[in-house]
Hints:
alpha+beta; hpI Integrase, Chain A; three-stranded antiparallel beta sheet; 14 helices
Amino acid sequence: MSVYLHKKSRYWQYDFQVRGARYSGSTGCTSKSAAKEHVRKLRNEIAEGKQTKPDMTFDEACGNYMDLVGQHERKQATTDGQIRKLTSFFGKSTLIRDLDRTEVNKFVAKRRGEKARNLKTLVSNATVNREVQLLKRIISRVPDDYAKPEINWRGVMLKEAKERVRELSADEEARLFDKLPPDLANVIEFAILSGQRRESIVTMLWSKVDFEGQRATVRVKGDKWHTFPLTPRMIALLKSQPKVTAQVFTYVCERPSPPRNDRPRRVKGERYPFSSGGWARKWQAALKAAGVEDFRFHDLRHTAGTRVLRASKNIKAVQNLLGHTDIGTTGRYAHALEHDVRDAMLATDSRNSPGPTIIDLPENGGNARSRG
């Protein structure tokens, strides 16, 4: 019998053979004695023919996923929170092979009826879908030599609201920049010019900025990298930032704060890199003071995409700037060309028309008619 600890897992692992068939994986046990007892029972069941494949509990499956994938994810804290939601519903000791479509549907129904963290709205369909997608990944990562369910996932995902395209008008932009603190204004301006996501901008590294090549590379969703060109104004904006940390955009601390689990202490007057959302209150305060309503940071990305498309008439260029893998996603910005299409139609109207048309309004008892 072989049980051992892996340096990247808190659970004891096992690896043994019965009649030439190999069984290996996590025991789900944190003590060696419990792990040995788990393996002893498992071997007896296999030898007696009670099961051809070993079972894995839901908790073990989640631990297996974190060992293989989750611990390497950039947003591990988010994955941890999603796993807590899943475990709370399905139960730690539930065998992974016992999961079925009915239980998955029950989870979806329960989650979509719960309050979101702000307690003002219900959990969004997108949030529920991301949790279901994680559940699929957890099951898919269960080794093939374990018993696991066959679930028909078709139709499980909820319909998500179509993403809107909210553009910042020139007047709104002027009012907003009048109210923004200087350091935050740099982040906002770069977002409008580059069209990159909030997380990508605040984590942008000096080592990924190529002034000579006039390009920058940022980390994007899926833990991938995306490179985009820099304009003269963007280069000037970046060069105006003091090089005090590995991250490009920093702010001057206004109030000292003690150390926390996620960061060291803050000293008044010193510069520190922006966090993902630590400046949210200043952002919201600026929007309110400027009278800019129904506007989110992500709308800066929409603003950039819309403006570039309107100026270039090149939807492929917008796709490359924003890093969309599917040009269909970029298609939401097509409204920016509506006026151009209308102008083109008007320009060809007289050529395409057979002649002037006289329209008698219905209230006068007439019908539309044309004359040559």
